[in-house]
Amino acid sequence: MAPSEPNAIPFRAKGEIPQFKEEKEGWEGYIEWEKYPEKKKQVEALLKQYDFPDPPEFQMVPLPKTNPVLTGERWKQYHSAIGLDHIVDESWRVVQNEKSADMTHVLQFPYNGEAPGDRLIKTEITPNKDHFVRNHGGVPSISADAYTLDITGLVKNPTTLTLAQLQDETLFPRQTNTVTIQCSGTRRIEQIHSYPGDGDELINAPWGEGAISTARWTGVSLKKVIKHCGGLLSPADNLEFFGADTYFKKGQVYNYAVSVPWRKVQANEVLLAWEMNGEPLPRIHGYPLRVVVFGYIGARSVKWLYEVRAIKGPSEAPVQKKEYLYYTPQVGKQNALYSNGFSIQDMPVSSAIISPVTMDQVVHQGRVKVKGWAYSGGGHWPVRVEVSGDGGSIWYEVPYENMSTKYYYAWRLWEVDLPVDAEGWLELCVRTWDNAMNTQPTYVRSAWNWDLHVTSSAHRIKVYSINTSKPATAARMKQLEAAGLSIYPITRPLKIELESDEDYDREMAARGGRDPLE
Amino acid sequence: MAPSEPNAIPFRAKGEIPQFKEEKEGWEGYIEWEKYPEKKKQVEALLKQYDFPDPPEFQMVPLPKTNPVLTGERWKQYHSAIGLDHIVDESWRVVQNEKSADMTHVLQFPYNGEAPGDRLIKTEITPNKDHFVRNHGGVPSISADAYTLDITGLVKNPTTLTLAQLQDETLFPRQTNTVTIQCSGTRRIEQIHSYPGDGDELINAPWGEGAISTARWTGVSLKKVIKHCGGLLSPADNLEFFGADTYFKKGQVYNYAVSVPWRKVQANEVLLAWEMNGEPLPRIHGYPLRVVVFGYIGARSVKWLYEVRAIKGPSEAPVQKKEYLYYTPQVGKQNALYSNGFSIQDMPVSSAIISPVTMDQVVHQGRVKVKGWAYSGGGHWPVRVEVSGDGGSIWYEVPYENMSTKYYYAWRLWEVDLPVDAEGWLELCVRTWDNAMNTQPTYVRSAWNWDLHVTSSAHRIKVYSINTSKPATAARMKQLEAAGLSIYPITRPLKIELESDEDYDREMAARGGRDPLE
């Protein structure tokens, strides 16, 4: 499917592949690693026996025109090497059951997918089947009845709660919030197209503008749950989340784990959610229970949550400590450390033009309809959206009546009839201002970073403008119509003459010929 | 070879293909069209019977990674449709006989090719086998003994001259000039990469930086030949050149024809040449006689010259009137006319970085060797070359001792040790100033034009800088060496840890942790 990626190669296993059991009944596809250091060591030894192929090169060369764009052979092989092929296969079946058929599968496994642009911005609330998915491992199958959540670590009363208990409104007030979740990979393709970057073993998926979606999430504020456990014990200041998916980093295996500061939880901005748009969570989105962290990078909104642990300082787990780092442009393979990048938590202000799409050739009469989304994380919201038809010299404000509802934690959709007089290739761009008057960096180059995260610069597309309110263009369109020809694509040769000999001679005489008089 | 281009399709000829004869003995592959209007009409009728396939799309999608890059099926089929397949086959044989094996064949037929960059700038004078070729049709085979040149039109004494007469130094003084010839397609690939443009029926070949070369040409000044014919008659002010190659335009057939103003000839800047670097012209370069117009677009330097005609005004032939036009960026398929573009004659100041090449990842100790060429047409010459390591903010002058000889009509090669402190992706660029203080447009965008000619903006490449004079980078290089790993390519995942837990903890303590104190 993705020809640039190597096919699965047969493994040269030196020992028999152990069968890592699912530890908990009713939790299929969930291998518990964190409580079993000996199993982790066994995997480390096992993975050392294999020479996994290099991930496919897709940054130095054009992306494959396939769907899935990338298949994730290396990640599949990690699973295969430790006897977990069935998780890979099952995960793809879940995609086909739960997601729209026309998703762009930017990575087949672990599954990463985004909806086509026109549907992405059709509604303020994204339908579940169109909501983007950025998974880091396989999809487990967890029975709601068997489900339990452990609250551990530096809490006064470590507790295990069933889903029924969490949903018991006499114990916990229920809340519903409209929240946009955004992957820090959104619009990564623009950074890749500009400059190659991190070749991570978990491929940095080539996202377009669709790794962002909005849903109404229902659940309980984690603050109330911690309160229920008697509160934190000193010196706890962060909460670590563990998900049932399996993650790999430099030859070691983990359950997916990240953390958020207690301050964030205290602000009632961390929800333990079991409903998405009024329906039980789809399996691919974390059934039966997931975290939803408002205004943060999606990576903290852990799916298939099985444990919340109160700790001192951020999680030492690889996704928190060693991934989702934001570097200055002079940092890269030659000098990147874990400590010299920002740890991405709050997401900055950003926006994207979804229609038209780059390279479109647009016939219009002086105005082009431009549509898209605008978002700001960290509790900020988009106040003003500005669109430019000349690469960012003159900006037009989107009228407020063309912007969707304001929420503290969600995007706004917008559209504008942009005045476009000029013809030929134009650079259309958008920038958004949030309520703290933050706006977006000017160019991709202004904020390119080695790990290719957070592409938040003014979004720019190339559009070929054909303005039929111009007499010369109107004449050509008539000429094409008479000859039964199309203006599209512009790179197809014109079969007709551009100008009659008579017109040419008249025009040349008027211009005083090609050469000076004397 | 070029998978994006359709294979030759069988023709649905409704009539028998006529055998168009070579009119002159000793002139193989030369079909005379211009003196035979009835033959031209016959071809027009014949071509109408075919539905030629669209040329391949290579502007909206990535270029094929093949060599030939494009094969020119459509142009081959034009020849095939009128029974001239043998010219196509013979032309490719000539390429293989006369040109270096490692040329980049940007178009197989009509042949367009450029030498690899390292050889292109190895010597001030380009070896014949490495000199770029931009042909518009097939390569004829003309016997020097049978060769004649007709001087016709508005001259006092229309004359036919043999090669022996032209070479007779008692009739004509012989001269040798060092002249750079440049195709207006040089660096076209940068315009294509930025924005698609004209889909011409004679494919606009995707040239790199090598459609420019320099030779010492020997022959006779056309001024002397015209004088020999008694001079021009009023109102002649242009000289039209006819070549023996066959050209097509919108369903009609021609011999290749263009013109230059008499003023240009009077300045002794138009040579009729039979020698290239001390050897008889190679067949592919116009044997036995060609025009060399100093400082003009290469298209006026007609090969296989059989006639010079004195006329009033520029040539009405399609290459002069309807090709090599330079439009303003708002002109394109929707409104382009023949009369609203400049006719490209004099070439402007331009330059290119040949080493390093774009996307190179360069390990250095604070200085990067940068090399290239600089040229200005129209009788100007490059005086100053400036190179920037930061996209054009700070410019370094190339020391004059690092620039090759000054000529009135030739390029200068240059090299410089550019100070580079920064790491990561940098934009290196070059601009040249000529003796009239003309310099290059800033960006491709500044001078993009529909026909994709004359890409003369400051040449920019992307280079990933790895500066080992920086301690952090030196440490990483040591770490890689110890692990037996390479820094190349930068997109291959690092197998080693970026930082030990101990170093991370120390660093984080020094930074005061990830989060604020209170």
From TrEMBL, chains A, B:
GO biological process: sulfur compound metabolic process
Entry keywords, A to Z: Metal-binding, Molybdenum, Oxidoreductase
One GO molecular-function entry: sulfite oxidase activity
A GO cellular component entry from the record: mitochondrion
Cofactor: Mo-molybdopterin
InterPro entries: Ig_E-set (IPR014756), MoCF_OxRdtse_dimer (IPR005066), Mopterin_OxRdtase_euk (IPR008335), OxRdtase_Mopterin-bd_dom (IPR000572), OxRdtase_Mopterin-bd_sf (IPR036374)
Protein name per its UniProtKB record: Oxidoreductase, molybdopterin-binding domain-containing protein
Native source organism of the sequence: Schizothecium vesticola
